[in-house]
Fold this sequence. Notes:
The protein has helices at 3-33, 37-47, 50-64, 69-86. The protein is mainly α. The relative contact order is 0.05. The mean pLDDT is 81.
Amino acid sequence: MDTEKISEIAERIDKNVNEKMKLSTLHxxxxxxxxxxxDEANKYLCKKDVYELFKYLTANLVLKKPKxxxxxxxxxxxxxxxxxxxx
Length: 87
């Protein structure tokens, strides 16, 4: 490879890296200025223990394998609701 080719490739790499850094910086700025909806949704689901609820419901379905999975989920949710009301 001659020196010109190496310089050309190096310039293209620098340009590419600089563009990516600009995009990254812009994304960081936009993220700080505007809340990321996905991040906000995830925080809400964690705060309200929705992930834990779905893990519990899914585990029960897999273990029990009810003939009526929807009905079983409804019953489980009713039981959870009743136990929460007693607290």
